[in-house]
Design brief:
The chain has 411 residues and is an alpha+beta fold. Helices cover 59% and strands 20% of the residues. It has 18 helices and 10 strands. The protein has helices at residues 2-12, 14-17, 19-60, 76-86, 119-124, 126-129, 149-154, 195-200, 206-212, 232-243, 252-255, 257-295, 297-305, 310-341, 343-354, 361-364, 375-401, 405-410; strands at 63-67, 90-105, 108-117, 132-135, 144-148, 162-173, 176-190, 201-205, 221-226, 247-251. Strands 2-3-8-5-7-6 form a 6-stranded mixed β-barrel. A hairpin with a 2-residue loop joins strand 2 and strand 3 (108-117). It is elongated and about 110 Å long.
Length: 411
């Protein structure tokens, strides 16, 4: 009890401790900022991975089956049923056409990607069906299309407008292939929250897409959604054995590997760099306690002569260092979680305050800063910080406990 009382007195004794007191506070602030920054960075990077996985895979499927010769899949309903029955982990199977074309409206033209699938498939494709901003799914039929909100804003389009779609080799004539052009009505506007999709993708009813792209009774590919994204490679391998040769099977971990690998690498590098902040703060604890020991030499000698043991002196200075570490870590955790859970609001406030764009949708793909707190990572960061602080405290505490009271009083 007396050790804790003396430790608290030393922590509050600013004037008598001199510069050691300042160094101690710098180490406290450094630990708090280091822990907070680590939690914020890991949460944002986790959020990026989760959002990219949700958006990219939500639009493309966990596994894609297509013909190896790129000629299109015939009897796709039969193949889709075979795929659905091949594994109980497969939840959705969507035959679709995916082709590029040109969208023209009011003198503007833009290259876009068309995805054609049935109205029933649209209903089960949750990323789109849950984010329809204008129009109804029941309107998804005949000569109609759904477009992304950002594409609509970019080309000044609205619900009910008519646009033209063109492909370069749609009509066969004695003189060769001629461009094909058809008009479509915008019957729905969606916003999935990913810039690239919201401005570059058009959805079209499957039968209409087959007719427009001259793919009668064919689809380009079959999208497969499973219950656990981490099992995609195993299921893809099983499918390869089930449906036979002639097909190309690609899971999300291969089709978009570069994006997700870049996110993981960036997270690891940032974590390593930001851990240095905590290490610097830990060295400040060593410096501060060593300076505090020097400034309190006579106090330590007096305490020893009054009967306090070396173990008690060790406890005093260990309590000082560990208190700084634990309190700094606690403040850092609180600050990190507060910022992580409100990161997009903070971004919006800073953008209004500075009148500048801090998070470009064109660069980062997403329309808002994502954040996902991983409590296991928070635990690891907490333990890392506290253990380092405890280790840093041992040397100056041990040094203080071994002071010779007789020699100290002579100084």
């Amino acid at each position: 009890m007396i050790e804790r009382f003396v430790a608290l007195r030393y922590l509050r004794s600013g004037k008598s401790s001199g510069f050691a007191y300042v160094v101690t506070w710098f180490s406290f602030i450094g630990i708090a900022l280091g822990v907070a920054t680590l939690i914020i960075v890991t949460s944002v990077m986790n959020g990026f991975r989760a959002e990219l996985l949700d958006k990219i895979v939500g639009m493309k499927g966990h596994i894609i089956v297509s013909r190896a010769d790129h000629e299109g899949i015939l009897d796709y309903d039969k193949l889709a049923e075979q795929i659905a029955q091949s594994d109980n982990k497969i939840k959705k199977v969507i035959p679709q056409i995916e082709q590029q074309c040109v969208l023209a409206s009011r003198g503007n033209a833009r290259g876009i990607m068309v995805q054609g699938f049935s109205q029933d498939s649209l209903k089960i494709k949750n990323l789109v069906s849950n984010n329809i901003k204008s129009g109804k799914i029941s309107n998804f039929q005949k000569q109609t299309i759904f477009i992304g909100k950002r594409l609509a804003n970019l080309m000044n389009l609205k619900l009910g407008d008519s646009v033209k779609l063109m492909i370069p080799d749609g009509l066969e004539t004695p003189f060769g292939n001629l461009p094909k052009e058809e008009s479509f009505e915008i019957s729905g506007i969606f916003e999935v929250g990913m810039n690239e999709y919201d401005k570059n993708i058009i959805l079209m009813p499957l039968a209409t897409a087959q007719d427009f792209f001259n793919q009668v009774n064919k689809v380009s590919q079959i999208e497969i959604f499973i219950d656990d994204v981490d099992n995609s490679q195993k299921i893809a391998q099983k499918l390869a054995d089930t449906i036979g040769s002639g097909f190309m099977i690609l899971d999300w971990q291969h089709s978009d590997a570069s994006i997700f690998h870049a996110v993981v690498v960036e997270k690891n590098v940032m974590t390593l760099i930001l851990s240095i902040i905590i290490l610097v703060a830990v060295f400040n604890i060593i410096s501060g306690l060593t300076m505090l020991t020097s400034s309190k030499t006579r106090d330590i000698a007096i305490l020893r002569t009054m009967g306090m043991t070396q173990k008690s002196i060790l406890k005093i200075f260990f309590t000082i260092g560990s208190s700084i570490g634990v309190l700094g870590t606690t403040i850092g955790i609180s600050l990190g979680l507060l910022v992580s859970t409100n990161i997009d609001r903070i971004k919006q406030f800073l953008e209004r305050f500075s009148n500048s764009e801090l998070f470009s949708e064109e660069i980062y793909f997403l329309t808002q800063i994502p954040s996902k707190v991983d409590w296991l990572e928070v635990l690891y960061i907490t333990l890392f910080s506290i253990i380092l602080c405890f280790i840093a405290t041992l040397y100056p505490a041990k040094k203080a406990s071994k002071l010779d009271p007789v020699e100290a009083l002579r100084i």
